[in-house]
Design goal:
Distance between the termini: 108 Å
Shape: elongated
Strand order of the largest sheet: 1-2-3
Oligomer: single chain
Helix content: 40-55%
Number of domains: 2
Number of strands: 3
CATH class of the largest domain: Alpha Beta
Strand content: 5-15%
CATH topology of the largest domain: Tetrahydropterin Synthase, Chain A
CATH architecture of the largest domain: 2-Layer Sandwich
Number of helices: 7
Largest sheet: 3 strands, antiparallel
Length: 187
């Protein structure tokens, strides 16, 4: 018979050490996790704001069955006192006006577009007949202005008043005209 040895220890194998994560592996894992989180955030947070609805897909049959078709709206009645509502506004545009302001010695320029809202077709034909004169007067008015005047507060408003005077010389002082400057760039 054999007797067990009391001081003898039984060795159990040590667990294998976990593999070390290198910097490259950490970057790859972080990139995958970040891309996944970004995709989820984009789908549920950003997409509804951009699309104007929810990110959850809807079926076409459910939408059409639940939502009644919109009724066609009646066009607004034309009021005899409000001629502007009855007739669409006519715009006469002068685009791409480029001038060197006074005193800039060619080192600065102003690029602008001017639109005149006119009341009727007769006014439009009159402006078309005087197109070269109108464009020349607009260019002359803009290039006569100095940089301090062009860059002061409310400069566009005073320029519009001056351009309105130019149009009134052609259409007459009683013509109902509005002046817009959709493009006004100073460099």
């Amino acid at each position: 018979m054999t007797t067990p040895v009391e001081n003898e220890s039984v060795e159990t194998p040590a667990p294998a050490p976990a593999p070390k994560l290198t910097g490259t592996m950490l970057l790859v894992i972080a990139g995958i996790a970040g891309g996944g989180l970004g995709g989820v955030a984009g789908a549920y947070l950003v997409a509804p704001r951009l699309g104007g609805g929810s990110a959850a897909p809807t079926t076409a049959s459910a939408t059409t069955a639940e939502t009644p078709a919109p009724k066609p709206s009646k066009p607004p009645k034309a009021d005899k006192n409000n001629e502007k509502a009855a007739a669409p506004a006519r715009l006469y545009r002068i685009d791409n006006v480029i001038v060197n302001p006074a005193g800039s010695d060619g080192t600065r320029f102003l690029m602008a577009s001017v639109a005149f809202e006119i009341p009727d077709e007769a006014s439009e034909k009159l402006l078309q007949a005087h197109e070269i004169q109108l464009r020349d007067d607009v260019v002359g008015a803009l290039e006569a202005m100095t940089m301090p005047r062009l860059t002061q507060a409310h400069a566009r408003d005073s320029i519009k008043v001056q351009l309105l005077g130019i149009v009134h010389r052609i259409l007459g002082p009683d013509a109902q005209v509005d002046v817009y400057m959709p493009q006004f760039v100073i460099q």
